[in-house]
Every structure is written in C-alpha cells, then in structure tokens.
Design a protein that fits this description.
Elements: H1 2-36, E1 39-40, E2 48-49, H2 53-59, H3 62-95, H4 101-113, H5 116-126, H6 133-140, H7 156-181, H8 185-193, H9 198-206, H10 211-226, H11 230-235, H12 247-257, H13 261-296
Antiparallel strand pairs: 1-2
Helix pairs in contact: 1-13, 3-7, 3-10, 4-7, 7-10, 10-13, 12-13
Length: 297
C-alpha cells in the first residue's frame, strides 16, 4: 500500500507541471474568452454584462455566413493541395530513380520554411493586374483573359487560399514521402510475386500505411482554414469589401480595430467550438476506419 502511495505521489509530481502549463496557456484563456463574450467591453474599461447578445448579433449577421463560406472554400483548396497534389508528388518522387530526388524534395519543402510575408509578397507581384507574371503570360499568348485577381470578389478568396495551400503543400508532401519510404520493400515484392498491379499495391499497401499522415494533413488543413489570418491580412486586408473575411480575421477586426473586445471574444469562442467539432469528426472517421480494419484482419 505504501509503495502504491509513493507511486501515485511520483505520478502527480510528474504530471503537475504539464497540467499547470495547460491550465495557464489553454484552459484559462478559453474560460476568459467565454466570460468576455458575455460582456459589452472595449478591452480597457470595465465591461457591462449583456449575456448572449454578442452571440445573437454574430449568428444573425450576414458577415458571419460569409466567413463560414470563405472557411469552407479555404478548406476545400487546402485539402485539394494537401491530400491530392501532395500525395501524387510524394508517389512520383518515390518512383523516380534519379540523383535529382533530393533536389526535388528540398524544392517541394522550401515554401514551408519561408516566411509567410515573403511568400505573400511574391504572389502579390505575380497576381498584380498591370505587371503581374500571370496576366503577362496571358498577354504573351494573345489571350484577353486578364483578371484583377485580388480585387475581384469572385476570385480573391480563391487566390488567398491557393497561396496558403501552395505554401503548406510541401508539409503534406514530406509526411507522405517519409511514410512511403518507411514501408518495407518486402511488402511490395510479395505483392509483385502475387501479380498485383501498381494501382493495387498502392491501394492495399501504400494508402493503408498513410492513415496517420492523412489524419495529420486533415487536422492541419482544417486548422489553417478556420484560423486563416496572416495571408489574408498581408494580401487583401479582408477585402475587397469583406469578401475575404474569415472568423479569425473578423475577430481581429472587431477586437483590435473597432475596439469591441466582447464581440471579438464571442467570435473566438465560436472558432474554438468549430475547431473541436471538426477535430472530433476527423478522429471519429479515422477511429471507425481503424475498427473496420481490425475486424477485417
């Protein structure tokens, strides 16, 4: 019994610092945001309790629906790059037997480690209406299709989402590439002996071994879409009008520009709730897949 008590005390001593850190950095800010969302508060003076008025105002706002639509567009573009293009690039690079493999691998991953400011400035110059590379290419080809990519309400959010997806596609690529290279060659050799085609080998060997990489990419893409801010701030500043606003940018604008901290806290709470909902769905999907896989075995 004494030994058990000593073990419990040791366990508590090891867990306590992490639990304290979590409480200070995560739990307390969430509780503070929940409380702040119930106030009419400018962030400086003492706030006035207004209950759920900030949330009612947020849910009945047309801007809230626009932010949700932009988040879904952002997420779709991110998933397209991270789940499809990133995986195809990893599969192609693994198949290439060349000394240039390391160069291609570094080139794919390079945008991830470059500052977002540098990436955004580069693409701003490419999408510039007058001197941008993209419109210049159309002009050289004799095509009259020229766009004001970042000031057009129909294309602005797609362009911003594309820049984020382009920057972080290399992260997904590296996850897939590392996982594929870690699969034992004996699996593929046995499949070849059994007469399996390349597609069958990828379907029954490669893809099942990439489940954790897929889970990571889904979580990362979802988090980036819901919390999209820096690329929007640098490239469009939320414009044209409010057409590239997301909840994260709306939180910044209301809290730090308009001085409505209570409303900003309410937006922050919704961001946390949406993140938890998406993460729960992703984990449930993958856990269900794991259960089916165990049953089939």
């Amino acid at each position: 019994m004494k030994k058990f008590k000593n073990y419990s005390l040791t366990l508590i001593l090891f867990v306590a610092p992490t639990l304290l850190l979590f409480t200070v950095l995560v739990a307390y800010p969430i509780v503070e945001a929940l409380y702040g969302g119930m106030l009419d508060w400018d962030g400086i003076s003492s706030g006035t309790w207004i209950g759920f008025e900030n949330y009612k105002k947020l849910f009945t706002s047309s801007l809230f629906l626009l932010c949700q639509k932009n988040t879904l567009i952002y997420l779709a573009v991110m998933l397209g790059y991270m789940l499809i293009i990133g995986m195809l690039a990893a599969l192609l690079l693994v198949a290439i037997r060349s000394k240039m493999r390391d160069l291609f691998r570094s080139a794919f991953f390079l945008p991830v480690i470059i500052s977002s400011t540098v990436v955004c400035q580069m693409w701003l110059s490419i999408f510039n209406f007058d001197s941008g590379l993209l419109n210049k290419i159309f002009e050289m080809l004799g095509v009259t299709y020229r766009q004001e990519w970042l000031t057009n309400s129909n294309t602005a959010i797609l362009v911003v989402a594309f820049v984020s997806a382009w920057q972080y596609m290399g992260l997904a690529f590296m996850m897939y590439y590392t996982n594929i290279r870690s699969i034992p060659e004996e699996y593929f050799e046995a499949a070849k002996i059994d007469g399996a085609s390349v597609l069958q080998m990828h379907r029954h060997i490669t893809f099942p071994m990439l489940q954790e990489a897929l889970r990571f990419c889904l979580v990362f893409a979802t988090s980036t879409a819901i919390n999209a801010f820096d690329t929007i701030f640098i490239m469009t500043n939320g414009g044209p009008g409010d057409y590239t606003n997301t909840l994260a940018y709306l939180m910044y604008k209301t809290a730090f520009i308009r001085g409505k901290y209570g409303y900003g806290c309410a937006v922050a709470v919704i961001i946390v709730i949406e993140c938890e909902i998406f993460y729960s769905i992703i984990n449930k999907l993958f856990n269900r897949h794991d259960i089916y896989k165990e049953r089939s075995c």
